[in-house]
Amino acid sequence: MRIIQKIGVYFIMLIFAAVVAGIYGILHDQISFTFSEEYFTQFKFKQFGIPWAYETPRFGAAYVGALATWWMGVLVFIILGFFGFMFHSPKQMASNLSKSFLVVIVVALLTGLAGLALGYYQVNEQTVSRYMQWVMPGVTNPVQFVRVGFMHNASYLGGLTGLLSGIAYLVICKLRNNRVAEGL
């Protein structure tokens, strides 16, 4: 019976992960839109095929963020969720998986912000020519466009490092639970 409950927890949290990742993407792209509107109007709206977004670009950026990340939440949780089965009860599984997914989100956000900071460090008027192959035609502020590109690329790396951090968190929780159960 306990395994059936854990499977239920897994699938409920998988849906939760998709929703949370979509919300994360909305917030992420609102931050990056603030730094470069052109990253969306000259690149992402075309990439995602959403011509209506030019009418309300900030809402369009939110839409792009949700579309770009909900699936990453599913992918991350498919893997992360399997580690949840090592906990004794469905309640422990749900609690520890929720906390580990928070770890994933924080690591992904910090990695993305580190990418933006690296973009500010690396890219300026004198160095932007090194990155012009990244810049879409029609961009009037290539420096900010490339800086936001750094943030977006780093955020995907953040998803991977977040996943590894979330797994590490779960393993540490399991080891602590084992020590407590053994009375140490």
Please provide a written account of the structure.
Helix 3 packs across helix 4 and helix 3 runs parallel beside helix 5 (142-181). By secondary structure, this protein is mainly alpha-helical. The chain has one domain (2-181). It has helices at 2-35, 38-47, 57-84, 90-122, 142-181. It has 5 helices and no strands. The longest helix has 40 residues, at 142-181.
What key phrases describe this protein's structure?
mainly alpha; 79% helix; transmembrane helix; Signal peptide-containing protein; membrane; transmembrane
List the helices and strands and how they pair.
Blueprint: H1 2-35, H2 38-47, H3 57-84, H4 90-122, H5 142-181
In short:
The chain has 184 residues and is an all-alpha fold.
Cα-atom Rg, whole angstroms? Answer: 20 Å
Number of domains: 1
Q: Give, in order, the helices and strands.
A: HHHHH
C-alpha end-to-end distance: 30 Å
Number of strands: 0
Strand content: under 5%
Helical amount: over 70%
Structural class, please?
mainly alpha
Figure out the total of helices: 5
Shape: elongated
Average pLDDT value? Answer: 95
Characterize the largest beta sheet: strand count, sense, and whether it forms a barrel. none
Low-confidence stretches: none
Keywords: Membrane, Transmembrane, Transmembrane helix
Protein name: Signal peptide-containing protein
Transmembrane segments: 7-27, 61-88, 100-121, 154-172
